[in-house]
Amino acid sequence: MLTRSPYEPLTPTTMPARLGGLPEMTRRLGPSAEWRVREVGDGNLNLVFIVEGPAGSLVVKQALPYARVVGESWPMSLDRAYFEHEASMRLGARDPGRMPHMHLFDREQAVQIMEHLTPHIILRRGLIDGTRYPMLGGHLGRYLARTLFRGSDWSMETARRKADVALFAGNVELCGITEDLFFTDPFHDCVRNRHNPLLDRDVIELRGDRALKLAALRMKTRFCTSAQTLLHGDLHTGSIMVSAEDSRVIDAEFATYGPIGFDIGSLLANLWMACLAQGALRPSDDEATSYRGWILALAETVWKVFVAEFTHLWLTERSGILGGRELLEHQDDAEGAALALNALLDEIWRDTIGFAGIEMHRRVVGLAHIAEFEAIADEELRAGCERRALRLGRALAVEPERFSDIADVSALVAELAGRDR
Amino acid sequence: MLTRSPYEPLTPTTMPARLGGLPEMTRRLGPSAEWRVREVGDGNLNLVFIVEGPAGSLVVKQALPYARVVGESWPMSLDRAYFEHEASMRLGARDPGRMPHMHLFDREQAVQIMEHLTPHIILRRGLIDGTRYPMLGGHLGRYLARTLFRGSDWSMETARRKADVALFAGNVELCGITEDLFFTDPFHDCVRNRHNPLLDRDVIELRGDRALKLAALRMKTRFCTSAQTLLHGDLHTGSIMVSAEDSRVIDAEFATYGPIGFDIGSLLANLWMACLAQGALRPSDDEATSYRGWILALAETVWKVFVAEFTHLWLTERSGILGGRELLEHQDDAEGAALALNALLDEIWRDTIGFAGIEMHRRVVGLAHIAEFEAIADEELRAGCERRALRLGRALAVEPERFSDIADVSALVAELAGRDR
User: Fold this and answer.
1) Where is the stretch described as Disordered (chains A, B) (predicted)?
2) Contacts B226 to A, Cβ<8 Å
3) Helix (H, G, I), strand (E, B), or coil: what is residue B360?
4) Which of A192, A142, A156 has its CA nearest to residue A311?
């Protein structure tokens, strides 16, 4: 039904006629004559529709042949829907329940029909509103450990992993966006960049900061050459939907094989930036301090649960060719196995803070900014927050040896945020 | 002609009838009735024929559906001929003149028809004979720099590099042999291993050496996850053919994307092991010392020419996405570019000695041993050489910080070799 015609973007008006014959839709929604369709896409790339009917609701996501955030002048392959679907199937299976359920994928139309998450909102919105999510840290820490461990050569049958490396090596276009937007654009005068004019001097300083630029290149090299595991590839707080009791990860179209620390660093960077915005977002210092403390604790929980779950998986599911059981446990050397795990966790931590530091720069001086800062009406206040994000980001990227533990980062975030009004 | 029948191993008897209709053969050899065919394969995996006719000679290499070194009990896919051919085309183009010229490839018969290198011999044979090759160090250093740089994201258009990553991710079977035989088998009690019985105590010690086993796992992780460039994948002195003036690299069937230091470390390890065999191979101490000195100088030349050529390519051909010109040269920071290069060369050096250390272990206690040691008839003398190779290998793999420069390795090789009679 969906594929009989060549690719054409859906609209609320054409959707009942175009998708009304799909049993995957009518079974869950009721007859198409009674559908109500809203386009709700607020992301940078795609059309997203919520379709409601008498029997329920669904989300229909369709890729556009260009980047929505820029327009038709930035053409973009529809294949990204295919890679998103392939990645979502894998990530969803590696940590069941954390991705929306997928009902149907049509490659030619670049359409995914999936579960409508309700009453969920985007986590970034929740962090602006000041909502607390008691389950979130555990959910995200386990999601990171399970998806990142289970897509690697520590866990997978290596022929399957190599086939996946090959498959996702095809996601060149979206991977290229990450390569440019994270690691290159913010550090030179690129037409895609934008920044708060009050930061003009900071940006000049940044562009002359050799140590920072070498760190950006170092992390780009890690990203491009270290094929440790299947990454979500864009795991910021806008790619997570939350309700009081549930947490879901969406938008995996940037998936690629890369270093474990990339997803973790992206997420933690966005939590730490949210901390830096609180002073400007809350009516009172007490509220700001209290909520900032909650986000800092959330970030620590994410990391600590990640470490605990990764350790558990290392001990119980280390069946891949990098497991090394023949060399360690099978020679009665459990302590050696613990040392190997610690060395790996150290490397993941260094990558995590390196990637977090880079993420902060692109969110202040690159193309894609964050709603927490954009929501600050006062330009001076906003510049202060952004400047502190740059300071934090530089410390993480250039002086990783200052942060042997996540508590060291929390302390610096709290110190910087203490100056935020 | 070649593909009309299903796969069948060639023999000297059937070759004229089966290949006599190929213009690629008759043009270079003359009519098939006058061919003389010898099977000369001394490698571990394939049939290799030299075919001579009135007009010239050719080599015909055909994969067998099993590992020749073990027999039909170790089945192996014929696809390795395809990967060898694909790799040879690329490596040959990246450093023209260092691979034999390929005339024809037939995938179904797993046959490659290529230039007959004459009067070349295998380098390992030359190192046993004590021959000096004045051009060799320059040839190999440039080969390493050119092939390893030009297959990477420092040089290639990234979509092409990602397509090659995907292609060679399919070489699972031969890559798996490397993963097992280099990094795992030697460090546990594996049925494929063999060693000189006089080393029984050393092997027990080795198997209990936690630091060594952790180093092996660390280097295996580098090999499996660090997709820096297209490697030859088996670059020892048995994969190099030499004449007085020419040097060629053969047998690229183990090609895979991996860390730059792997090929370099494999090669240097084999040169250093050849040094350790000299005392037992030469009739006089003077001859042994002198020829050992030549091999040590050769290894230093290989590394230094590699560094010089890699530096030249870095400065002149750094067109890939990891080049970072936008961040450095384009912002008038040539010194920053030099620092980035130095950091990369440091990493390559650490990888190089790490892989060299692992290679030495597998050549003494794993499946595939080296002719330099095997040629030593006296078991005690041979055990002494092998033991020194293990000592050197352990130092390189476990204490890399001892070797800031290749001269530090030369000094240790010379010191160990000084005790070799």
Assistant:
1) 1-23
2) 225-227
3) helix
4) A142
As a whole number of angstroms, the distance between CA A257 and CA A164 comes to: 8
Size of interface A-B (CB pairs under 8 A): 138
**Do B339 and A210 count as a contact with CB atoms less than 8 A apart?**
yes
Three-state secondary-structure class, residue A332:
coil
Question: Selecting from 3.40.50.1100, 3.30.70.270, 3.30.565.10, 3.90.1200.10, what CATH number does the domain A121-417 have?
Answer: 3.90.1200.10
pLDDT in tens, A360-389: 999 999 999 999 999 999 999 999 999 999
Residue A43: pLDDT band with limits 50, 70, 90? low
Q: State whether residue A52 is helix, strand or coil.
A: strand
Residue type (1 letter), B310: F
- Supply A345's token pair: 């966790």
Max CA-CA distance within chain A?
67
Give me the amino acid identity at B79: D
ipTM of this complex: 0.95
Q: Judge whether A168 and A257 are in contact, CB under 8 Å.
A: yes
Q: Which of residues 159-178 of B touch A (CB under 8 A)?
A: 159, 162-163, 165-167, 169-170, 172, 175-176
Give burial (CB, 10 Å; 0-12/13-18/19+) of B30.
Answer: middle
B221 at A interface, C-beta within 8 A: yes
Contact B67, B60 (CB under 8 A): no
Cα separation, A134 vs A124, in Å, equals: 16
pLDDT tens digits, B365-411: 999 999 999 999 999 999 999 999 999 999 999 999 999 999 999 99
Calpha distance B236→B254 (Å, rounded)? 12
On chain A, the residues whose CB falls within 8 A of the CB of B324 are 184, 213, 217, 220
CATH 3.30.200.20 given to domain B15-115: yes
State pLDDT tens for residues B209-238: 999 999 999 999 999 999 999 999 999 999
Q: Note the pLDDT tens digit of each residue in B76-110.
A: 999 999 999 999 999 999 999 999 999 999 999 99
